[in-house]
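Colleagues,

For the teaching module next term, I've prepared a clean inverse folding example: a structure given as C-alpha cells, and then the sequence designed for it. I'd like students to try predicting residues themselves before seeing the answer, so please don't circulate the second half yet.
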C-alpha cells in the first residue's frame, strides 16, 4: 500500500451551486451588485473556487469549498440572487479527480 492509497480525499471535495432563473427573473443592477459582493466575500474567505454565468443557458454556476454540504447550502441560500427570488439553486457535491490524488485513487502509478 503506497502513501497515495492512505490519503484522505476529503479535501478534494467541492460543491457546485447551480443557479437557474425563476419566473421572477429580472435584470436588477442592485441585486447583481449584491450578488457580486457575495462572491467577493466568498473569495476573501478562500471558499470561492470558480464562478460565472452560462453563455448558452440562463443562469450560472458557483463552485465553493465548504466544510459540509449543509454549509454549501447555506452559502447558496445567502446569495442575493436567491434571497431576491430571481434565481433558484441546486447544490451538487463534486469530487475532484486529478493527477495529485491519482484520479481519486484509481489511476495506476
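(Answer key — instructors only)
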Amino acid at each position: 500500500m503506497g502513501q497515495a492509497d492512505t490519503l484522505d480525499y476529503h479535501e478534494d471535495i467541492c460543491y457546485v451551486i447551480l443557479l437557474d432563473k425563476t419566473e421572477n427573473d429580472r435584470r436588477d443592477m442592485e441585486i447583481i451588485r449584491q450578488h457580486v459582493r457575495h462572491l467577493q466575500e466568498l473569495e476573501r474567505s478562500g471558499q470561492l473556487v470558480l464562478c460565472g454565468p452560462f453563455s448558452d443557458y440562463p443562469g450560472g454556476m458557483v463552485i465553493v469549498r465548504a466544510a459540509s454540504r449543509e454549509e454549501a447550502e447555506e452559502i447558496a441560500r445567502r446569495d442575493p440572487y436567491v434571497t431576491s427570488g430571481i434565481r433558484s439553486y441546486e447544490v451538487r457535491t463534486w469530487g475532484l479527480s486529478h493527477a495529485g490524488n491519482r484520479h481519486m485513487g484509481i489511476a495506476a502509478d
